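Progress against Task 2.4 (sequence-to-structure conversion) is shown through the following example record, which the project officer requested during the mid-term review.
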Amino acid sequence: MKIGRFAASNNLSIDAVRHYMDLGLILPEKQGGQYNFDERCQSDLEDIINLKEMGFTLGEIKSIFLFKRLGKLTDYQKDTFYQSFYNNKLKEVSKKIDSLENIKGNLKQKIQELSARENKSKHNLGIDIKCLSIFRCAKCDGDLILGDGYITENKIISGRLRCLCGEEYIIDDGILIVGNTADAEEIDHNFIIDYINSTDKEYLNNIYTGLEWAHKRFDFSVINRKIALELGSGKGFFLRYIYSDIPDDSVYIAVDHDIKMHRFLKGMLENADTAKNIIFICSDFLELPIKDKLIDVLLDISGTSNYSFEHEQFLLDLVDHYVKDRAILLGGYIMFKKFASDSLVEEKNRKNFTLDHIKERIMNLGYSLNEERVSDFVEKGGKYESYFKKGEKVYTYNFYGKR
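Structure tokens generated for the chain above:
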């Protein structure tokens, strides 16, 4: 019987048969340049299949076949040998079953724990009623008065902040909204999974390394009873990373112009084990309805860089009036090692993505350096991080300092 017919009659591919031949498990005789598969080959193949069904590896099957072919065992000796082989395999399989049963139990327990967490009551994140004093009218600097407010657990969930000049700011689902915000579809809860799966692994590693660097160097005790402002909270990587370390008596203002991202991030934080004092403001950075010289800690985690894709001005200069004369800056800035001819960054904005200019602007604002870091460069991003072209090398500069 030729190899094609032998393979087809046993529901195997020719490659599988050749693999068994290479291992010496099937030994057809070669006749006239072609292999002939006889009854002994068929018997060996049936033994291979039976042994595989009992969990034996091809390496173990090869050992069995060697004993079968070379040992010239008597029937009694053969039975004794096979019993020993089968008993050892049974012990091995039994251990695996016990291990898998243990794994199965652990998985069931973890699923139950996660289900219990999903069913627990969510925290309502809104604007703490005690924080109303930090707001002011961005148009005339006047005081704002709450009207039509819905308050639960001392958190403003909905309402309007009105100024005597006629300016008005809406609070919707605990988020302070400045200006008109178009209705937007919610971001799917699997967004982060998709983001991770579709983003280059080196790019993700740079994000994590930067977050860990910032977390280790930041002294969270400095924001006890203080106010921190994050410029561009976006997907919330930084806020989620440090969330559990934020002191309960501090105020954390998360600013972003994308209401979808705010709702997504807020929904995630409401499922956390603890509720922190987070104020979400959906606004342009230059129209924040908060008082001047209010911010103790400025968190500029790619906020200035993202702003620089469309603006020539350096964002830290434009928002400095919100920040106290004695303040802390923790920053992360996107830098380009070189710009492609078809770069997405306009030429007039490119200085904001160079190390010397970034450091110059920070120093001109009076911040003295405590620690800094420059990451390795990456050359790929992903469908959510498509802001650089082929040939451009992108890296991150981290700054931690105070004035």
